[in-house]
Structures are given as structure tokens and as C-alpha cells.
Amino acid sequence: MFGYVVMNKPEIKCKDFDMYRSFYCGLCRELRERYGISGQITLSYDMIFVILLLSGLYEPPTRKGTTRCIVHPVCKQQVRKNTITEYGADMNIFLTYYKCKDDWEDEKKLLSLVYGKVLEGKEKKSEKLWQKKIQVIIECLNELSELEKVQETDIDRVSGCFGRIMAEIFAYREDVWESTLRRMGFYFGKFIYLMDAYDDVEEDVKKGNYNPFAKDYIIKGFDDRVKDMLLMMMSETCREFEKLPIIKYADILRNILYSGVWCRFESISKKRKEEQEKEHV
Fold first, then answer.
1. Which of 21, 114, 186, 211 would bridge with 204, disulfide CB 3.0–4.6 Å?
2. Helices then strands (H, E): number in the chain?
3. pLDDT at 11
């Protein structure tokens, strides 16, 4: 995943932050137990959102406990885990493996090659457990790769591929909430893809890598245009979210959706403006 799905910490209540951290530590432990230390390194904030969303909707029995780790060797940390934590760990491993594979094929990143080799085989466990779902995700990843190779300029089409990947991940069950979760995941996925492209556009252009904004980022009003796109994607995401009967963890989820994701955008936008001002000095 990309690391854009974060909370706005100054605006979150202490009890909600502790809850969020306990699920974060829960995913960390689940990755370690299921996939070893190499799997534990794939830990991402993005998947915590998925786990909280689905846990809030389905309310599975959740195990509570405490743990110590390298990051927190002295104080024990609260841990919460459930069946959806297991699902999140499987999806996290699979997506990280294919991102490493894609980074090596597209940019020849040596670290991605090495880490991909370390994860190789581990993703097979995820494929076996979620065969039908993984097959759809692989098809979308392959389509996305082909579009990037031909330098596709249709931003809606390219981001839509990642949208369908997230739709598949959000649709945990085939039930009454599936269509709402799919729509939410689709727009959320497009948001993540567009944010990542916006963040990386200058670096991608310098390196000669594909980026759907490569021809637009030097045009006046680029930042406002991207923000309008992101607002559109997130408004649709939030519209679907509010249809779900979620009470548990709702404040945390709303913090992320309505505030947290925009903290990253403002940070990227501010950095870009500062760099542009330096170039004109």
C-alpha cells in the first residue's frame, strides 16, 4: 500500500488513538505469527483502516491482550485481533509482494527485488486462502501494468484499476453490504492512486517513470485541479461509508476519512510550493 491513509492525530481523542494503536499492534503481531519477521515489515497504516472498517461493520469477537516488541521493549502495548486482522494480514502480504515485483520491473529497484524474493512463496498462502478474490486483484494489477507500459493518459481509466483492487479488498463477504463496500473501496482506491501519482510526479518525470500527471504538473492550477479530483473521490467514498451501520470505531474512521487523508495532501502541496519558490529565487 502507499501510506496515505492516516489519522489526524491532534484531532483524535486519546481513547480512540489507543484503540487505533491496539489494532495496529494487532496487525503487526498477526503478520509476525503468520509470515515471520519479513512479513511483519510489510505493516502499513492503510490496512489498519480496512481492518477497523470491517471490524466496525461486522463486529467479530475481538481478542485483547498486551505485547512487547523491539519498538516498545519496556512498556507493554495493548493488542486487539480478530478474524478480520487475519484477513488484513493476508491482503497486506499479497499487495506488498506485487508492489515489490512491480517496482523491480518498472524502476529496477534493487531493494524491491531483494524484498520481493524474501516474500516469494509467502503470497501463495494468501492466494490459497482467498483464491477467487486474489484472482480478480491479479487481473486488475496486470491491466494496470499494461496501461502504465503504454503511457495511458486517461487518468480515470488508470486510477480505476486500483479502485477495483480496493473494491475487492473492501468486499469481505458476499452479503447485503457488499455493493456499498465495493463502491466505497472503488473510490477510495482511486483516491489513493491519484494521491500517490501527485506525490511522485516530479521524481517520476526525472527518472523517466510513468505518471498520469507527467504532462500536467507544470501547468498553472495543477494543484487545484488535483485537489478537485481528490475531493470528488473522497466525497463519494464518504457517501458510501455513511450508508454503513457502523458504531464501533466510527469516530476513528471519520477522523481518517474527513481529516487524516487531507493532512498528507496539504503536506505534499506545501512541500511542492516551497520547492517551486526556491527554483524561482
1. 211
2. 11, 2
3. 92
